[in-house]
Design goal:
267 residues, alpha/beta, NE0471 N-terminal domain-like, 434 Repressor (Amino-terminal Domain), 3 domains, 3-stranded antiparallel beta sheet
Length: 267
Amino acid sequence: MSEGNVIYLTDDPAARSKQGYQVVRADKAVETAVAANSSLSWFVGTKPVYQKMISSIADSNADLIAELKDVVLIIETKFRKDPHDRTPESLFRSVIEIDPKTALPFEEFMEIRKEAHPEDFIIGGRVNSESKTITLYRGDFSPLLVSFARFKKNAVSEPDFAKFKVVDHGMGIRLGDYEASIYPILYELDSSYRIRINKQRKNEDKSFGACLYRARRILGINQDDFPGLSRETILRIENEKTKKLRRSTKERILKRLGLSEHALLNY
């Protein structure tokens, strides 16, 4: 789906299309879906249009409702008054619930939709403290289930799962003061992503610093996480600002990564 197929639902009759996406009234949503030539995504945004949308669908005939099986619905968590209401799941291809306080702003989400690989970004997520998991929603609307155990305490902070937020234009998540890149998560859990990244490596800079940067991100290691080495030292090495790298420094880096130098230079 292209970014033009994401529809922002509102109950404002004066709303106009803007920024590359359609803005439609909630009571016209079903007709819009039927008239479309390809599948759509609906984003129920900052206004309480959820009930109006469901009522509009309920008043439609069976053929119109069948069209919704090609539609992805993205709604804010607060819009379902009944937490046990699963009506949307019976109507839509998939339903994504996000909390606007923790998800990306809609405008940033639309920019991600323009990327060649929107699935490489996170637009929102939901924390389940009982199962100790986070469901991350990617830019292509696919969900990714991640265990709390994936986020290890580092040298400067530990994760606070009650303070989840998507940051860095969908390339990172914040758990209180703890921040994590999505790259190691995708690399570990998505085989297609891993294959594509490995192919890209063959054409990239193979210097020690460049390989360190890529390996660190894929392995989920922060610049602060190298015992005996400062963050500034790692930063200088990655940016090729160090004229000559000491053998002892290199050995500390390789030991922390758990890699041989040959293995590192394959990143």
